[in-house]
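Hi W.,

Here's what went into the run:
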Amino acid sequence: MELEVFIIQTLVKILVVLLIFSALAGFTTYLERKVLAFMQRRLGPMTVGPWGLLQVLADGIKLFTKEDIVPTNSIKPIFKIAPVILPATAFIAIAGVPLFPEFQAFGMTIQPIIVDSNIGVLYVLGIMAIGMFSPLLAGLSSGNKWSLLGGARTAIQLLSFEVVTGLSILAPVILIGSLNLIDINNYQIENGWLILTQPIAFVLFLIAGYAETNRTPFDLLEHESEIVSGYATEYSGMRWGLFFIGEYVNMFIVSFLTVLIFLGGFGEGTLIDGLCYLGKVLFFIFLFLWTRAAWPHIRPDQLMWLTWKVLMPLAVINVVITGLVVMF
Amino acid sequence: MFEMIAFYTFAFLIIASFIVVVTSNNALYSMSALASGMILISGLFFLLNADFLGVVQLIVYTGAVIALYAFAMIFFDTTKNLIEVNSKKIIFLLISFSTILLVFIMTAPIKSEAVTALHPIHQGVGNTQDIGIVLFTKYLVPFELAAVMLLVAMIGGILMAGKKMDMLVANEEIQEATK
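Here's what came out:
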């Protein structure tokens, strides 16, 4: 009986998370266009529905019905698999993120997290990193030199930023002594938000998060003015759309993780705390869009310089100092 | 029952991916299959409740296989098939080796009952902590040796890559001086 309840609960949770986040990914594209428009003193999408709200729906219809082109010289099986990897890994990763404090409903306690494991943070970051195979395979299998350049840039971006992500969460983890995201949240109820004790780690994690999700200023993979559309050059229709669902879900994951690890998460877990939690997450989504409007792209060599000569030494020093403070 | 289904699914998929790695003529197919095989192995770790090792497998092999892709991008045109030389000697050696391995695998269950864990995990403590304790007490020397070896490899790599760096800079300086 216990097992059956558990299985049904998990299946329902998976379904709800899938539906909510696919819809949110679409809605965030609308938000992104509106925010960018207001920052550039335009109106943004206005034609379809009130304030252009139905634009998402129109885009969806367009993406689904557009002709699906597979280039002749591409390696077809891998070309077709590549766009699926990114949303798949994003949704697998979100299984490890607590999306709301636990609450009572239908006469039982519901924990809005699908997998509550001892290694939460590492699990989420590890699966997110696998998502980088998607642009890489897309770039390599397209048979197009712009795509190939996009793929090559994926490889350097991942190799550079895996290190910074890992080292930047190491210092908070030393303080907390656990990798479980709920333990991390509970630690901050007693000891205050970690951003106060670990400001450097916070900034490093945020920068690395921007690179993991390929957002401006690190969207080298599809930098329009240099390499057409990078790894996505040969894609059209829903295959192209899948890359973007994955990217937006990853944005949400990074925002959730930042809030959980550094900004107190959902605190005590009351309803108001839960709403504050979602509010903080939305602020970070807004920050992603704000950065896109305000910041220019950087070049690949600047990215390497930034990672290996600035961020990584800073992260290592941060870890060493935290270790010394904890020890003495 | 769920564990059994999961185990056989993972086992079948892992073997299938590694067969593709060995038999495919295309570098891109082989590497993608290698990546999927390595990632699927982490599923077996998760099934054994070794969460930490599973995640380590994920993170380490994602980075490692991506580095391999980078090399393949430099050396091959990944959209074309490679022409391989299959000598009969290698095939003979491989077949005999895998036969011996198969015998060992089949006879392993006879011995396996006598095997006990040297460092059984503690109930209530995550296996991350257990691994940490064992790594920094009993296996401290091998662990540090591995670390030193990696450091040596890194210094060697930097030396190889940077051998001509100062010379290049010197040449540019000379050229600028003569202008």
